[in-house]
Amino acid sequence: MGVSRETDMKNIAAILTKELYTYFVSPIAYFVFFIFMAVSGFLFSAMFFYASANQQSSGFVMEILFGNMSVILLFFAPAMTMKLFAEERKSGTMELLLTSPITDVEIVLGKFLASYTLLFIMLLLTLLFPMLITPFGDLDIGPIASGYLGLLLVGSAFLSLGTLISSMSKNQIVAALTSFGILLLLWVIGSLSNRGGKWGELFGYLSLIEHFEDFALGIVSLKHATYYLSFTTVCLFATVKSVESSKWR
After folding, report:
1. How far, in Å, CA of 163 to CA of 79, rounded?
2. Which of 26, 64, 74, 97 is the most exposed place for a label (fewest CB within 10 A)?
3. Is 189 within 8 Å of 207 (Cβ atoms)?
């Protein structure tokens, strides 16, 4: 059992390494990092000057920044996942990958973890922002930690859906636009939650933004974490089934 599990992890690591290599030998990773930091930095600067002029706390700046970064990820996640399977199909290497001694689960996890590693690096770079405002006021580590945890969870949901859509497409642009459209729908559906009643509760539960707000406020909720982890698991399971079905096409 131990040998089998080790072999599985090696296969996942091999796929992960291969995907990271394709990210960094192309302009994709550097472009994503640069634009993400540029947009986040601009919003951070705007909020910092606003907070200074209105005597708001440093925690207020980070709370708004976390909300802004979650929206930015909505645009960037499709770009980070669009090539994972779509490029394999377009180049004709999907068949070779499926006939290799690697399971479908290992392929999906390896590719997903590659995009997730990219997300982790992006968020790691943004630690510069709380460091910059520390001299202007004491920051509570708790809300900062919960904010980043929320971004990792919502980012996981975004990327898992993008991975699923990529597995069903042969065109990267189509995969990116489809992923963005579905994510946007799941994001704005929260605005319908104020209708009240069972439908309002359902829309509120399905909304991606409704589950993130507590994290930005410094509240770690098991209910919201479970939602994101369940969403990610369902999307990855569906991706495995999509990859399996490719063998019969």
Report:
1. 11
2. 26
3. yes
Q: What residues of the chain score a pLDDT lower than 50?
A: 1-7
* Rounded distance between C-alpha atoms, residue 98 and residue 195, angstroms: 47
Q: Which residues contact 231 (CB under 8 A, 6 or more apart)?
A: 157, 160, 161
- Spatial distance between the Cα atoms of 112 and 20, rounded to a whole number of angstroms: 11
Q: Is 57 helix (H, G, I), strand (E, B) or coil?
A: coil
How much is the pLDDT for 191? 64
- Measured CA to CA in angstroms, residue 137 lies from 50, 218, 242 at distances of 15, 17, 50
In the numeric block, the tokens 């997300």 are attached to: 119
**Three-state secondary structure call for residue 171:** coil
- Cβ neighbour number for residue 198 with a 10 Å cutoff: 8
Q: What six digits make up the tokens of 206?
A: 């399905």
Q: State the residue for tokens 């079905």.
A: 245
Nearest Cα residue to 237 out of 245, 249, 226: 245
DSSP 102: -
